[in-house]
Amino acid sequence: MCDDDLITVCAACQQATCWQGEFYCEAYKTANIKQMRRGDLAKLALEHPCYWLTDEELANKRRTERRRRCFTTTVKSLNVSWS
Ligand SMILES: [Zn+2]
Predict the structure, then answer these.
(1) Measuring CA to CA, which residue among 35, 32, 58, 42 is closest to residue 3?
(2) Residues near ion ligand 1 (Cβ under 5 Å)
(3) Is residue 1 part of a domain?
(4) Contact 17, 47 (CB under 8 A)
(5) How far is the CA of 44 from the centre of ligand 1 (A)?
(6) Average pLDDT of span 42-57
(7) For residue 12, what are the contacts with CB-CB under 8 A and spacing of at least 6?
(8) Could you tell me if residue 75 is inside a domain?
(9) Gap from CA of 10 to ligand 1 centroid (Å)
(10) Is pLDDT at 28 greater than 70 in this prediction?
(11) The total number of structural domains that make up the chain
């Protein structure tokens, strides 16, 4: 984990929680995604740093949560929201 890690965020609101489907901004349906450095996100301080995960960290997190079986509902709602 370092300031140069690239974090995928919503291009409209620059928040990872939006891209990850935790909290959507008003533009999420049409907004693109982009990658920002963790250090730049820290300067903006739009959300808690615990959401700034690289794609690899995100994949690991999802694998872990799926094992715990608590992620299934979230995945289903995600699929609906993004279709
Ligand atoms: Zn957004």
Answers:
(1) 42
(2) 10, 12-13, 18, 25, 28
(3) no
(4) yes
(5) 14
(6) 95
(7) 18, 25, 26, 27, 28, 31, 32
(8) yes
(9) 5
(10) yes
(11) 1
Give the model confidence (pLDDT) of 30-49 as tens digits.
999 999 999 999 999 999 99
pLDDT over 70 (residue 1): yes
Q: Within a domain: residue 66?
A: yes
User: Ligand 1 center to residue 67 CA distance, Å?
Assistant: 28
Distance (Å) from CA 9 to ligand 1 centroid: 8
What tokens were used for 55? 């794609």
Question: 């690289």: which residue's tokens?
Answer: 54
Domain that residue 12 falls in: 6-82
* Residue 24 identity: Y
Count the alpha carbons within 13 Å of 46 in the hemisphere toward its beta carbon: 18
Residue whose tokens read 């094992």: 67
Q: Are 40 and 75 in contact (CB under 8 A)?
A: no
* Gap from CA of 20 to ligand 1 centroid (Å): 10
Q: Are 16 and 8 in contact, with CB atoms under 8 Å apart?
A: yes
